[in-house]
Specification:
The protein is mostly helical and about 200 residues long. The protein has a domain of about 100 residues. Helix content is about 50%, strand content about 5%. The protein contains five helices and two strands; from the N terminus they run H-E-E-H-H-H-H. It has a two-stranded antiparallel sheet with strand order 1-2. A hairpin with a 2-residue loop joins strand 1 and strand 2.
Length: about 200
């Protein structure tokens, strides 16, 4: 029986059910499987051995998860100390290769100087990127001003307080066509009177 096609839980459940069924229904009989003769007394220990192995793996994996979690916690606290210590050793013994080897560290490699062609290629690539992205310098950005055309901005003024009411003589208009349309404060004026 292969345990790779089924999960361990399914296999364990099957094995336990086989053990229980064998003890309940075939406890006194004998049967031949694959050319070998078995009784319930000989088959149950074989099945129980697989169940015990699966349980042992489950326990070990649970313990391993706990152990790995504990190790990761320790690494999280010790890791920065190790990194700082390695940098300290490399700076202190940067010229003594044998001493660095004693600490299990390699001497830092010297950077190879860049050739003129490499520098020119880097500069050309940077300029091409600036052009492609449309990036400009700080002074060039200050020179860019946006203009809005086709939009008239009319300031809205708050109406002033009306003077105290005094009786005034009524004025009669000469004709209704010459009277301008009433304007409400805050509404834009159209410039023509309506009749």
């Amino acid at each position: 029986m292969s345990t790779t096609t089924k999960s361990k839980a399914a296999t364990l459940a099957l094995v336990q059910a086989l053990i229980a069924g064998t003890q309940k229904h075939l406890s006194s009989g004998s049967f031949t499987l694959g050319g070998t003769s078995y009784t319930a007394a000989t088959l149950v220990p074989i099945l129980q051995g697989l169940a015990n192995a699966i349980n042992a793996v489950n326990e070990a994996q649970g313990s391993a998860k706990d152990t790995v979690a504990a190790m990761q916690e320790v690494e999280a606290t010790v890791g920065p100390v190790i990194g700082a210590y390695k940098r300290f050793i490399q700076l202190t013994f940067s010229n003594v290769t044998q001493t660095l080897t004693d600490f299990g560290l390699a001497a830092p490699k010297a950077r190879a100087p860049r050739t003129v062609e490499q520098k020119a290629a880097t500069k050309a690539k940077a300029e091409a990127t600036r052009i492609a992205r449309g990036t400009t310098s700080k002074k060039q950005k200050l020179a860019v001003k946006g203009n809005v055309t086709g939009v008239t901005v009319t300031p809205i003024t708050a109406p002033t307080a009306a003077p105290p009411a005094t009786p005034a003589t009524p004025v009669t208009p000469a004709s209704p066509a010459a009277q301008p349309a009433p304007v409400t404060p805050g509404a834009p004026s159209t410039g023509s009177a309506t009749k």
